């Protein structure tokens, strides 16, 4: 009997210990954010909102083909959670740079999501040779006033590249008649979209039969717009402090050659890596500048990096 009582007491003690440990694990910390969520994870069929649009142009979601294609992109991008969280984090840092430039040119704000699907808001490099957030080809960059060579490549300059993207989109809108077709033309080219419209005798993007990449293009943009605009609705949990912040900078003008950017950076209490992080358009460790062109280099304000 005593042995049984001791066993029961021991079991009871273990149970209390387990409850105590569970209570500690379940205790709210930092507004419940760090609570374990693994047991709450479920996969749901998503309801496609019936009022989705791109730049104010409504998607014809009563068309079953359009509805299924939109459903696909919502599902793929909602449940690609790691990528989704990265997009939230990067958008906080880079959208404030992109948005005023779009507004200045009269480009709908929705086009910032085009940059999201083009590059994931990184200085990506495509197999075809496109570069930067807006994936600009070398010829397009040069035609629109960007310097593109081995020493300086302004396709990596976010502000200047956004300006070029705006010029291209305005020309596309004028030629094709809608923002939706202008966005599709950013992927397939103005001539390519014009040719397909004529060949298939239609006037709307959603009536076109296109290669898969261009056929998914607008749907992917709208999916990212919907998700990034409604994080709670699609199950993304984060705090403002989890998002990436921009580092304040000031500008230094340079109208001569720079023979050594490592030494140049040290003048401003930063290193070469940090200089390149803020000026990715500087492609080499020196600046040729034989033409004595005036360049503007971004230097981070003091106190944001620990440099030894």
UniProtKB/TrEMBL annotation:
Family the UniProt entry places it in: Belongs to the transglycosylase Slt family.
Leader peptide range in chain numbering: 1-23
Keyword rRNA-binding: no
Keyword rRNA-binding in annotation: no
Protein name, UniProt field: Lytic transglycosylase domain-containing protein
Superkingdom in the source lineage: Bacteria
Lineage: Bacteria, Pseudomonadati, Bacteroidota, Flavobacteriia, Flavobacteriales
Keyword annotations: Signal
Annotated ranges, domain Transglycosylase SLT: 98-204
Pfam family, any one: SLT
């Amino acid at each position: 009997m005593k042995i049984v009582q001791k066993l029961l007491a021991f079991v009871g003690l273990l149970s209390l210990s387990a409850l105590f440990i569970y209570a500690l694990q379940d205790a709210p910390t930092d507004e419940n954010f760090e609570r374990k969520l693994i047991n709450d994870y479920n996969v749901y069929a998503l309801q496609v909102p019936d009022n989705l649009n791109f730049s104010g142009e409504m998607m014809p979601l009563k068309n079953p083909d359009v509805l299924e294609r939109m459903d696909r992109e919502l599902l793929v991008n909602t449940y690609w959670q790691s990528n989704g969280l990265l997009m939230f984090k990067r958008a906080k840092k880079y959208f404030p740079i992109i948005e005023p430039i779009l507004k200045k040119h009269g480009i709908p704000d929705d086009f910032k999501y085009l940059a999201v699907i083009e590059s994931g808001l990184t200085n990506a490099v495509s197999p075809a040779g496109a570069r930067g957030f807006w994936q600009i080809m070398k010829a397009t960059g040069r035609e629109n006033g960007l310097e593109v060579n081995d020493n300086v490549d302004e396709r990596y300059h976010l502000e200047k590249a956004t300006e070029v993207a705006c010029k291209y989109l305005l020309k596309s809108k004028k030629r094709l008649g809608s923002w939706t077709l202008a966005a599709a033309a950013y992927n397939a080219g103005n001539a390519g979209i014009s040719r397909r419209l004529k060949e298939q005798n239609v006037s709307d993007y959603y009536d076109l039969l296109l290669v898969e990449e261009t056929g998914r293009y607008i749907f992917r943009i709208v999916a990212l717009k919907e998700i990034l605009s409604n994080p709670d609705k699609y199950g993304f949990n984060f705090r403002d402090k989890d998002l990436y912040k921009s580092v304040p900078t000031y500008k230094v003008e340079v109208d001569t050659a720079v023979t050594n950017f490592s030494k140049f950076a040290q003048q401003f209490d930063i290193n070469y890596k940090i200089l390149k992080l803020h000026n990715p358009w500087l492609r080499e460790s020196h600046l040729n500048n034989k033409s004595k062109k005036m360049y503007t280099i971004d230097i981070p304000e003091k106190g944001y990096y620990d440099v030894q």
